[in-house]
Amino acid sequence: MRVDEESSSRDPPGLSPGSRNGWSGWYPIAKRVFDILLSLFGLGLSLPVWLIVSASVAVETGWPILYSQDRVGRGGRSFASLKFRSMRQDAEAGVGPVQAAPQDDRVTPFGRVLRSLALDELPQLLNILKGEMSFVGPRALRPMEIEAGDDRARNVSEYEGFEERCTVEPGLTGVAQLLLPRDISRDVKFRYDLWYVRNRTFLLDLHLIVMSLVISARGHWETSGRTMALIEPLRARVTWDLERQFGRPKAKRVARKAAGTKVG
């Protein structure tokens, strides 16, 4: 996907304009220092949660309590992403690398609790500390995966915009994760990811982290029909930008679906 070099002379209400050269100056240094400090703080604060979750997962599905998957990081390089196990141990037996779907019957009862609170991703604080991920960025994807509703595994590099998307570290949260349903097409998710890549700023990162913490506290990551006043200014801004790039009808349809269905 070609990066649109045309700068906008107007900005929609709700949020200040982003920067298309966000990696210049102090931003990358501040982002990395922030990731290190917040991940260390999070690991220390969440130690009791690690113990409770570890014991619960061990009782429900046995060992190992963590699972590691190859994910695509910055520059297209693979890294081992860590998560608490939220699916049964034979989740991919006979089906392959299928993307999790809403109400996926492979998810265990305790796994649904973990996913609703985003606690299954708590071990990714270690990935952030190591510099393989950031708190904010596009979702870390598997190199090959079968999308929900598809019948074949596709290499993530086949999607338009892959190379530009890989110019930043994948994130624990991000624009597509917050605004789009899990089962919407990856082509659409990549457009939202590219919007972040082209508009990222430190203030936007902080805004996304705050919104994500609120959703986690409310247990709404796996809830359908979720709307929040905190999210609407961002949704309006992204929709406005995508309307200019892809046309009003298509962007509006995506925005309406995102506002009324499950977050992915």
Walk me through this protein's architecture.
The chain starts with 26 loop residues before the first helix and ends with a helix. The N terminus is likely disordered. It has one domain. α9 runs antiparallel to α10. It has 10 helices and 6 strands; from the N terminus they run ααββααβββαβααααα. The chain is mainly α and 264 residues long. The protein has a two-stranded antiparallel ribbon. Strands 3-6 form a two-stranded parallel ribbon. The protein is globular and about 50 Å long.
> How many distinct domains?
1
Structural class given helices, strands, pairing? mainly alpha
Given the C-alpha coordinates, what overall shape results?
globular
Helix content: 40-55%
**Order of SSEs:** HHEEHHEEEHEHHHHH
Outline:
Helices cover 44% and strands 9% of the residues.
Question: Which helices and strands occur, and which strands form pairs?
Answer:
Layout: H1 27-45, H2 47-61, E1 66-72, E2 78-84, H3 109-117, H4 124-129, E3 134-136, E4 144-145, E5 154-155, H5 162-165, E6 171-173, H6 175-179, H7 186-199, H8 202-218, H9 232-246, H10 248-260
Parallel strand pairs: 3-6
Antiparallel strand pairs: 1-2, 4-5
Helix pairs in contact: 9-10
